[in-house]
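Tutorial, part two.
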Amino acid sequence: MSFETLELRKIKQEHHAMFAQRFDPNAIVEENVEVKVPIIKPRPLIPAKRSRKEVTIEKNEESEVESSEAEISESEAESEAESEAESEAESEVEEEKEDIEKDVDMENPEKFNSVLNRFQQTISLQDKLDVNNEDKNDQEEEIDIQVHDLEQIPQPERTPFTHEDRESRMAATNIAKIDAAFMSTQRIIYDKDMTKPFKDFSKDLDPRLLNNITRQFSTDSFPIQTSLWSNILPQINNMSKISKKNFTRRIGDQLINASTGSGKTLAYSVPLVQSLINRKCKKLRAIVLVPTRLLINQVGDTLLKLCNKSSLMVTMANLDKSLREEHEKLIINEPDILIITPGRLVDHLNMQSISLINLKFLVLDEADRLLNQSFQNWCTELLTHLSQDKSSIDSLPGNIIKMIFSATLTTNTSKLHDLNLYNPKLYMMDSIKLYNLPNGLKEFNLNIGTAKSIYKPLLLFKLIQSFLSGDFTARKVLIFIKSNEAAIRLQSLLSIIKDSFSSNNDDTTNTTTYFIDSINSNNTKLINKKILTNFTQSTNDNVKQILITTDLMSRGIDINNITDVVNYDLPISSQQYVHRVGRTARANNSGNVYNILIGKGEQSFWSNHIDIDLSRNVDTTVDDSISSEVIEQLTSENEATYMECLNIFKQQQQQQQTQGSS
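Running the prediction step on this input gives:
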């Protein structure tokens, strides 16, 4: 082997050892080989800010490196051109030497002065930071830290939250809602003592009308009648003489919030008749909107009595007749006052059966229920036709008087804005509660535990017996239940219970009988009307009339001789409760309400969602003592008899199903 080959191998070994040590510190290097390993300096922890001079120096150094590399590459190209004929071993030796020269150039510190300067600045900054941190630690150690035990922050004394506090909060909330809803409305407050003899209105009422009121109705006015008539009758009489065109704007719209049975029908009927009783020609000047056909006849009877011995014509929409037949009747005889439901009114407006060009009064009876109905979008249709018909003579706002009546008017304020009210006045009781109950109403709660809930129909029968037994006067009991199907089932089961217990009763002296019936949608309209007539017109003191119904009869039914109301199922709201109990204690008469409450859930619902909104007389409270009297009558023998009644009821239901399927 030649000397040049050995020398070349030695150079290769040194070269590989050097790069192995550089890139792999753990690599094993031969001891005899001495290799100069370039020192790799650590990266600074905090980079120092570079000055412009350093940047320019560094750029100059980089340009020098690039020029030197260019010179080397040119020399390599010349040497390669001259030694093309040399062997491959000699070319490898030259390439290894050039690599070694480059490595030696990389170790030249003069080319990396800027990097070294930055590293030194970083070290100096770290030393300063360490010194400052040590000084701060020394100062913190010198400060005396005072340690205290953990103590509770003083709290204000807690006062128990009573039922009166909750009532006051609810009352404040209710007042705030009313204030916000009727911000731009003039409020007129009346109380229960505002009664007045009808004769005191002799200056404001036509003698014929006053005679009809005193002869057909009572002698004294109710509070809402006194308040409304005192404000509106003088204005009607004065403005009708001065300006018949603008008297509607001077009076404005009337919003009346009055409890059920307080004389609302007579309250709006009297101003209508007084305004029209001296009219010269017959034109449609007043429309009374009611939610049901039962109310049509009720309101019609009142207005017919008031119009006696006058030439006013009152027409009641007959929903049993065809629309075409009624259309022809209205075309031939245009009435002064029309009593109708919203859906039928829209039909006649579309058929042009009537014209609203001369209309002066629009009355909404049971307004909350009317505004919740959307039959043919009646509210929008009515106002559109009214604007079109009135445009030829008077298109300005306030061209008619709107009279809105409801027992729960203050809780249905959002939909009142759709009526485009003009200068409205709100009549309401002086109370912080939402609703006012009749003065002669007495309330009783029957609290039943959940374990006894299966005996609820039996307890209902025991309850009826408790307040009807030994009473030799005519009593009429109205029982409210949640659904139509439940009313039918309860009627059948209650009749079976009545027959079973009357057969087991050994007391032959007790001649009281119970007549139980129900008004439901399974009956025809004729049958329901007959049932209602028998219920209202019965005068036999020994027969106790019991009528089971849904909320269909909770509104607008003017039956003054209902003595007792039973809420077999609680209503869904205090608003619905007011309408139910308003079927009794009407026209300043007395009446009783019995609420059956099952378990703590219904008792809590009664306290928190119904009772909290009701305003009563100062001396009136809800009596719970009847609970023990009724439950004590529930013996084991009664329970066994009741289970037999349930079996009989189930057999009857099965027979009806088989007959229906066959």
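The domain at 177-430 is CATH 3.40.50.300 (Rossmann fold). In part three we will examine how such features are distributed along the chain.
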